[in-house]
Amino acid sequence: MVSFDHQSYPYATKRHATYAKNGMVATSQPLASQAGLEILKKGGNAIDAAIATAACLTVVEPTSNGIGGDAFALVWTKGELHGLNSSGKSPKSISIDAVKASGHEEIPTHGWIPVTVPGVPGAWAELSEKFGKLPLEEVLEPAIKHAEEGYPVSPTLGKFWKGAHNNFKKKLTDDVFQHWFDTFAPNGRAPKVGEVWSSKGHAETLRSIAKTKAESFYRGELAEKITSFSKENGGYLTAEDLAEFKPEWVNPIGVNYRGYDVWEIPPNGQGIVALQALNMLKGFDFPEKESVDTYHKQIEAIKLAFADGQKHVTEESHMRYTTEQMLSDAYADERRKLIGEEALLPEAGDPSLSGTVYLATADGEGNMVSFIQSNYMGFGSGLVVPGTGIALQNRGHNFSMDPNHVNALEGGKRTYHTIIPGFMTKGDQAVGPFGVMGGFMQPQGHVQVVMNTVDFGLNPQAALDAPRWQWMKEKVVEVENRFQHDLAQGLARKGHQIKIALEPNSFGRGQIIWRDPETGILVGGTESRTDGIVSAW
Q1: Can you say which residues are annotated as belonging to the binding site for L-glutamate?
Q2: pLDDT tens-digit readout, 303-325
Q3: Is the pLDDT of residue 354 over 80?
Q4: Where does this protein hold L-glutamate (predicted)?
């Protein structure tokens, strides 16, 4: 296990890390976490628990994810780490010219143009088939029950739901969006905190996915409903696009950081950004966490890594540089030399010269899962397939309209993706899953959590509770209002444009589970910035 102090971080909440030996589920919603634990107690493994939790999250946290989103997973089982990329491609019929012909110079955030093939149902079915112990119908039962019988809306969920409804009411005035309001605002408003919300359509969709192992979603009755809705409203998504989808098993990519191997999913995901930053940072010494120098170097490394990611990363087959080139020590050395005493304006280098939910699960057999799924920008495209509860994602918004960009919009292509699960190992032993959800905050959160753990010895809860920073653009950096003001002032003197955020919403929401290789004891932490909980036994 990582060597850490079992005490809480001095500037954090009073929540402590959670310890258990038989199983653990960490996520942002108590009902979803308990669903995963229920499956573990029924004899399911960590993979079954991850699927149950993920499915439940589409019901109890619809502001961040849904059946119509994408998913990625890192699965540790029988001494090996497996990666699953279940992100969908753009419709074959879409193109830059087609988008421009429809009157758009940029890819819109809502409507049919940014909709890509959903990967979430395929991820559940694939994980269940390859590594699960229980039938998918049994694993999805808790989610189906919550959707059918309803549940009381939690505080953080209620806040985001109300904000999304107010925003959509102003922006989404076309009739095609009415199904979203029928599903998520049936009383003409968002459900209030403590009010019970249910979705019979969502329940029936989950039953269909469970019974057919997601076949109905891609090649059956649900596929027909999705493509009919698309055709009736000028969408690009076709039956062929859905039928051709299949999740892809991939080899995780990683770097060694001070004796620990940190793993991410390879591109099209942005996990490579976190790895590049860690590769630069391992060349420095960090004697203390709360110092201007520590934060300055972290920020500068992230800026340089993001500059590379935003210029060079897309679906791996379309990239000009390989992941090996981008993660080489020689390239990290060159990029590290750019980090000086003053804040810089980041530019991409040349590697050839050298609205998301996250969950973590573990069981008593040694299996561990790092899983993430999302619709993007909260509720996604604003489109809900009538009568199904399927809120479609808007991942295509990340494509570039520049035909010369590596991430240029094309038909049948995966876009640069923000959601990333993380995992850490040491030698041939699993340390455990970790992740921080939240758009482009995610690789920044990964770097901060890894360094809090490895460099500064914080336990999982303390590593998550510690005040966070977030690079926004150019020299602009946001810090939480709990961030020490003397350090913020010191960063400002180095040229950073520091903004203090009054709300913690934009700094991501994380989960961590570590395992002691000698005793098997699990230690977990959950996000104090939301309604998170660790369920354990």
Answers
A1: 439
A2: 999 999 888 888 888 888 889 99
A3: no
A4: 439
- Cβ atoms within 10 A of the Cβ of 487, count? 19
**With helix as H, strand as E and coil as C, how does 95-115 read?**
CHHHHHHCCCCCCCCCCCCCC
In degrees rounded to 5, what are phi and psi of residue 8? -80, 160
| Closest residue by Cα to residue 120 from 169, 158, 84 | 84
Strand 390-391 to 384-385 pairing: antiparallel
Candidate list 356, 361, 418, 530, residue with the active-site label = 356
Residue pair 139/39 in contact by the 8 Å Cβ criterion: yes
CA 20 to chain centre: 25
Q: Which amino acid is at 248?
A: E
What's the CA gap between 108 and 456, in Å, rounded? Answer: 42
pLDDT digits (tens, 9 = 90+) for 131-154: 999 999 999 999 999 999 999 999
Give, to the nearest 10 degrees, the angle between helix 141-149 and helix 30-41.
140
User: β-strand 357-363 against 23-27: which pairing, if any?
Assistant: antiparallel
In the three-class reduction of DSSP (H, G, I as helix; E, B as strand; rest coil), residue 96 is classed as: helix
The SS3 call for residue 62 is coil
DSSP labels, 106-146: S--SSSSTT-----HHHHHHHHHHHH-SS-HHHHTHHHHHH
Q: What span, in angstroms and rounded, lies between the C-alpha atoms of 232 and 281?
A: 52
Rounded Cα distance between 51 and 434, Å, is: 17
Please provide residue 220's backbone torsions phi and psi, each rounded to the nearest 5 degrees. -140, -145
CA distance 212 to 482: 48
Our answer to whether residue 356 is catalytic in this structure is yes
